[in-house]
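Predict fold of Acetolactate synthase; 564 aa.
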Amino acid sequence: MKDMITGAEALMRSLEHQGVKTIFGYPGGSIMPVFDALYDHRKTLNHILVRHEQGAAHAAQGFARVSGEVGVCLVTSGPGATNTITGIADAMIDSTPLVVIAGQVGTGFLGTDAFQEVDLVGITQPIAKWSYQIRSAEDVPWAVARAFYVAKSGRPGPVVLDFAKNAQVEKTEYIPTKLDYIRSYQPVPEMDDLAIRQAAELINNAERPLVLVGQGVELGGAQQELRAFIEKAGMPAGCTMLGLSALPTAHPLNKGMLGMHGNLGPNINTNKCDVLIAVGMRFDDRVTGKLDTYAKQAKIIHFDIDPAEIDKNVKTDIAVLGDCKETLAAVTELLTPATHQEWLDSFLPYEKVEDEKVIRPELHPAGKSLSMGEVVRAVSEATNNEAILVTDVGQNQMMSARYFKFSKERSIVTSGGLGTMGFGLPAAIGATFGRPDRTVCVFMGDGGLQMNIQELGTIMEQKAPVKIILLNNNFLGNVRQWQAMFFNRRYSFTPMLNPDYMKIASAYEIPSRRVMKREELKGAIEEMLATDGPFLLEACVMEEGNVLPMTPPGGSVNQMLLEC
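Predicted 3D structure, encoded as tokens:
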């Protein structure tokens, strides 16, 4: 007879069998047997003790986004589990593979309002790819194998395992289990040869094709296939925020970022192209603006792995379903080499206007105050444009996306769909574990930093080499900008009274420096990058700086404001 082990020990062995090496978590009553089992697996399973369960979820996201592996977090029941909800929702909308394992009261107590009982499966079903309650120890290997397969297959996403306490302590035989098939679940639709031929024909006959590059290119590892696709047909490309590092910033066909705070050229030419080719993106409202006026003149080709995205927001003429690594290559084979020089040249006037009215004033401000954009660009250039960019949410996020440059893939980690303030700091911690060979720079506002500031404790304990750049303007900047533009400068609860961040950094034994003058910036960045381990650089930037251009809310994608 095989050895009998506890469900908690079965979980440890199952995680090891899935290749897990890093876990982000926080112990508590209903998950204690699992943490006890983890004590004997410390050499193989590196558990990072965060300071809040939301931090665990976001750290696991950061880890997953840069490594391409599944992020794992381990928490207790009740408030421990509900504290991960924001991270689960964030991972769902941004297609991040995550497995959240939460303790639960014993099955005999379910439904009795027991201490720290909450219906986690019921809460998370709408915001996860799969939620499952493990009620017996023998279920563990199967449930873990299924969880990892669902999380990483097809369009990735979060999976929740609700682990009842009795199942953690019961004994079972352990049989190593892996899954690569679930009945009725088709993670990757079969490639349709007719759609491939139709897409190629439409592109070959196009005079003004425009490619929209989404995060799906990164998730599918299709960066080289994308380059071959656009280069063969000489097609300009714009990138969504999450897709920014799928194509090097310096690539001659990369025309910049799409969306509300994107670049003029790709946004305006969206409504001038004759064929619009979306690759692994979901036509988010921040990209499309007013749908009634979005690319009405164009034929739409949509490459996606998820059939639910087709025709969801924008009516598609040709849907190319499947893994874009395969579908892009298949279409590229049928393309006729082209240049579209006249069409490419049409971007130049917009680039010139944007450079004169927005980019140059941001990177070389007339006044004495530092601008957000100049700080971002200076950090990017000091890392030779090779760092991983992590952002929080708000003006810091938009300025980072606009002025950071990318030369390597999987180099942007940001909360796109949910827009979660407090995401940046823990996500950056996760990124340092996912890619310890790369420099991780996180840009934050004073609002977002304070939302999960306790994770400085995690950085202190782990000596995680997070380079924190705080763009401090003493405001909730993004909301303040909207109040300035659309609410007659009625700054309702957006001014921030801030603590002394140098003292806070010192308390957490994190080296730090505050910069108020332009001439101090270069030296401070050099000191930050030369310092082993973490560093907090506080850049005191102009209080009422604005992110431009901007498509006003509800406006058309080609109606971008250059001033406010």
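The chain has a mean pLDDT of 97.
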